[in-house]
Task: structure prediction
Amino acid sequence: MARAGLRPGLGDWTTEGEHPEPVPFENLRQLVAERRWVTPAGEQAVKGRRPGPSEALEVWRFGVVRPEQPQIFCNLHISQRSEQRWDIGLLVATSTHTKAGLSLDEFCASWATLLDTLGDELYERTRPALGTFTNTRAEIVGFAAAIARRRLIIGWRTWFGPAYTDLFGREWLLGIPDTASPLDDGGVAHRLAGSARRLAEADRSLYSAVWPYLERASIQSHWPRPSRPRTRLPQEAETDHSNAAHLERDDVELTALRRDLPTYSPQPSCWPAINV
Result:
């Protein structure tokens, strides 16, 4: 993360005060200790209750700062779901590009390059079950449970680990449009041809070549989901939508690596980025 130019941040994102965004903070050990939260499921697990596959036991969440663009909202989320399963997610909000004085194209060029490179490096470091860059906008997707069940997920960039190639077949994953290449651990790296701006705008036509490929194999992906026309309920005409603006944000989970560790019980990590 540091080599990519990112720093862990002290403080929270706010709209007030002297520091409305986190400030770079180099004491990772202190930050990780302060940001650790044991969830109710984690408390019950200590008492002997077995958690579900998507239940988080411990969570670490803090801001991430790119010093030359400190106004860009970026949050790191790490969760431990069992001794064998960890998630790491990096959320970047495209809607904050104006606060940094960037056009959307400038933002996409800058962050997509950084995160694309970071994704390659983190795959090498973590060997996840799956890693992906996605933009789900305000939609609740449930990636953790989906990956635990090995549901197919295809993002703008995707890294399929051996857990996925064993299930779907390496040759079939290599055939997904637009471009795919083998990885040295038996996995597959996949890329969509569309621009990062189209990702930021949640343009579903990015997947126009993917849908026929999935249909020929009779495979339904967990993500992307087919676009369906929305049925408007009669009472919606009288509904007050004044508080619904937050549902239209461009908050983008550009990076997400999720990892299963079959025999290794990791210690709490101070490593910030993506979904492990």
